[in-house]
UniProtKB/TrEMBL annotation:
Protein name: Tetratricopeptide (TPR) repeat protein
InterPro entries: Cro/C1-type_HTH (IPR001387), Lambda_DNA-bd_dom_sf (IPR010982), TPR-like_helical_dom_sf (IPR011990)
Superkingdom of this protein's organism: Bacteria
UniProt source species: Micromonospora echinospora
Gene3D superfamilies: lambda repressor-like DNA-binding domains (1.10.260.40), Tetratricopeptide repeat domain (1.25.40.10)
């Protein structure tokens, strides 16, 4: 993710001793792909940008598959930022952009409506009528059929269903192709209602990308994707979605940054609309947890009351789908708030209730792991350092390897930091070594993935 194609490459780039524009004009897609790869863009990234599978991109590059379909060529031009006319994709079929007069049929000979009597006013009215009819047709037309739009939204819904249980690295590659398709369609003229739906889907996809990057610890990219999600949600004009993406974005500074920014983002989410929603309850719960971490005890307790009241009004159904906020998720946030407030007895109670709801074999493994790490922090506060370190190690070790991401490892490191130096025994040393080994293993896996990318 985060791959950038420099537009200047197309104007100044050279391939095999010739300007890359020569290859573009011949629609030599294989040479274009090889040109990008030589500049550090992997074939997998190229595939995501142009909306084809990595295998197909590799076949095109090797010359095993030719690209001749106009819509595919157009998708490649748009995805790579190549001026369409350079690939002969101009509207008049010649590669040159038509003039304004050519784009509007008959406009060069359009008779002035206000000409004097005897100047054939009927001709002017008829021309206006033709122009109006053409304008109506243009406004009614769309490059997205209703069924295509339904399928895009259904695909996003399926990603939301599987996202919580899937490793973030796996999900990012799946989400990338979906984002490319929405990006391409959004660049074309769409009716307002269609564009609103596309923007809504883009907001959900971008939020999942941001969350996955956050879990992996790629804070800068996650922040940018959350910014994109907020922009898309605002463009959708869906107030509930605008609340949701802001509430989700508030998580990033809580785990990797200044918790005060979480408070600011959560309050921005709550200010979008006065209508209660599960996303508003999420924002309120996130605000309570951040205030507790900041040491603002009284404000945090008031925020907990607000979150509970909102949740009682709009409580979500039990679901493991992304962005739902059922009881167990609410308890997960309250666990963090109580932990940071030092109310360990309340925190233990909330954690037990939440873990019971997640069940012995949770389909969303990261939440129970983070709950267990909250419990470890409580154990530290209760001066049970050895038990805290051992339980934190167990929380990380029981996760599948692909789920031992930076968000979990950072919380485990927080447990180590909370243990006073004089109380750090062998269990603390073992936890520290294990976290370090997990990070090294994650880097090795990431490097191996990059090396295997064709």
């Amino acid at each position: 993710m985060g791959v950038q194609v420099d537009p200047s490459w197309w104007t100044s780039g050279v391939w095999e001793g010739r300007p890359i524009r020569d290859f573009l004009e011949r629609r030599d897609v294989a040479a274009t792909f090889r040109f990008l790869h030589a500049r550090g863009v992997s074939y997998g990234a190229i595939a995501a940008l142009v909306g084809v599978s990595p295998n197909r991109a590799a076949e095109i590059t090797k010359g095993k598959r030719q690209v001749t379909a106009y819509d595919v060529l157009e998708r490649i031009a748009v995805g790579l930022g190549v001026p369409r006319v350079w690939m002969g994709l101009g509207q008049d079929g010649t590669g040159a952009r038509p003039s304004i007069d050519q784009e509007v049929e008959g406009s060069a000979d359009f008779p002035p409506v206000g000409r004097p009597a005897g100047g054939r006013p009927d001709e002017a009215i008829n021309a206006l009528a033709r122009l109006r009819t053409g304008l109506d047709e243009a406004l009614a037309s769309s490059t997205v059929t209703p069924r295509q739009l339904d399928l895009i939204e259904e695909a996003a819904g399926e990603h939301m269903r599987i996202y919580p249980a899937a490793p973030p690295g796996v999900m990012l590659s799946r989400l990338a192709a979906e984002c490319v398709e929405v990006q391409i369609l959004s660049r074309r003229r769409q009716p307002a209602a269609v564009q609103a739906r596309l923007s809504g889907t883009a907001a959900l996809l971008a939020t999942m990308c941001a969350d996955a990057l956050m879990r992996l610890g790629d804070v800068d990219e996650a922040r940018l994707w959350y910014r994109t999600a907020i922009h898309a949600a605002d463009d959708s004009s869906d107030s509930r979605l605008r609340v949701l993406v802001r509430a989700q974005a508030a998580m990033l500074p809580y785990y990797f940054g200044d918790p005060w920014q979480t408070v600011v983002l959560a309050e921005a989410a709550l200010a979008v609309t006065a209508t209660p929603s599960s996303s508003a309850a999420l924002a309120a719960a996130g605000r309570a947890r951040a205030l507790a971490r900041l040491g603002s005890a009284e404000q945090a307790r008031q925020a907990i009351v607000q979150a509970r009241q909102l949740f009682e009004q709009v409580g979500d159904d039990d679901s493991d789908t992304a962005f739902r906020f059922p009881v167990k998720r609410m308890l997960f946030y309250l666990s963090g708030a109580s932990t940071w407030l030092g109310d360990t007895s309340e925190a233990y109670r909330v954690q037990d209730e939440a873990l019971c709801l997640y069940g012995p074999s949770p389909s969303v493994p990261i939440d129970p792991a983070l709950l267990a790490l909250d419990r470890s922090m409580c154990l530290v506060r209760d001066r049970r350092a050895a038990e805290a370190a051992a339980s934190a190690l167990d929380a990380v070790a029981t996760l599948p390897e692909a789920q031992r991401t930076e968000i979990v490892l950072t919380r485990a490191s927080d447990v180590v930091s909370a243990i006073p130096v004089r109380h750090r025994g062998s269990e603390t040393a073992e936890l520290t070594d294990y976290v370090r080994a997990c990070r090294e293993r994650a880097r090795t896996l990431a490097a191996g993935t990059a090396a295997l990318d064709p």
